[in-house]
C-alpha cells in the first residue's frame, strides 16, 4: 500500500527532518559507490542528519563504520547505493528488521532504486524534509520441513535442478491441498516485487505491488498445458521433491543455495515482517515499467505528458 507524505516549508521555517539518523550501505566495491557515499554523507551532515556507515564499506571509506546491530538500534532510514541486487541485499539485511530503504541507482535496470546521482542533492534533501512516497512490500519465508532454519526472500524462491538441462520432479500443495505433480527444470514462487525479476524472464505475469498475491511459475515444464498460477498472499505453499535421481537446489533471491533430496519438503509463506521502500514524490509503477522495460518506445516524454 502506497501512502503519500509531504511536509512543506514556509519562509523562515527551520528544516523539518523526517529522518534524523540515516544508515548508508552498499554490497558493491566500486569507486562510484565510494564517491556517492561521500556525497551522501556531506549532503546529510550539512542539514544536521547523523550518518551511519555500514561496516560493508570496510576500509574503503575513511568515516567510522558501524555494525548491523548498531544500525538496527539507531537508523530510521537506510540508503542503499547500487542496483537492484544491492537493494535486495539491504532489504533482507535491514528492511526485514523494519528500517525503511531508499535506493540510489548505479545499476543497469534499477527497477527498485529511484534516485540518480545527477539529481542527488535536491532529491535527497526533499526526502529528508518528508517529500516522499511510502511503499510497503511483503517478504516470503521458506524452510525445509526437516529443518528449523528459515530463509527470507523479497523477490522469489526458486527450486531448480542441480545439473544443467536436467528435469526434476516435484509435487505442489497449497494449504495442504494437492495441486499437481510435475517434471520441469524447476519452479519459481515470486512476490509482486519479484514479478519484474527472474519470473519475468520465464514469461511470468507482471503483478502490480498493490496486488496481494504470490505467483507460481513452472520453469520449462515437460507439459503442453502448464500456465503460471496466481494465488492469494496468505496461502501456504509446499513443494515436495519426488525425483529419484536428479538432485535439486533451493535459492532465495539467488542466495542461500540449499541442496534438496528426494522426500524433502519446502514450505513457503508470507512473512509477518514487511519492507518499507521510500520513493521520491512522483513515483509511479507504470512509469517505471515504461522506462525500465521499454514500454511505449515510440512515444516521447512530452507525448506521454499530453496523454
Overview of the molecule:
The protein has 307 residues and is of the alpha+beta class. It folds into two domains: 2-131 and 281-306, Probable inorganic polyphosphate/atp-NAD kinase, domain 1 (Rossmann fold, 3-Layer(aba) Sandwich); 140-272, Probable inorganic polyphosphate/atp-NAD kinase, domain 2 (Tumour Suppressor Smad4). Helix content is 20%, strand content 36%. It contains seven helices and 18 strands. It has helices at residues 31-46, 68-74, 84-93, 120-129, 198-201, 285-293, 301-306, and strands spanning 2-5, 21-25, 50-54, 65-66, 77-82, 101-105, 132-144, 151-153, 156-161, 168-174, 177-184, 186-190, 213-219, 229-232, 237-241, 248-252, 255-260, 265-280. The strands form three sheets. Strands 1, 7, 8, 10, 11, 15 and 18 form a seven-stranded antiparallel beta sheet that branches. It has a six-stranded antiparallel beta sheet with strand order 14-13-12-9-16-17, with no helix packed on it. Strands 4-3-2-5-6 form a five-stranded parallel beta sheet, sandwiched between helices. Strand 10 (168-174) and strand 11 (177-184) form a beta hairpin. It starts with a strand and ends with a helix. The model is unreliable at 4-13 (pLDDT under 50).
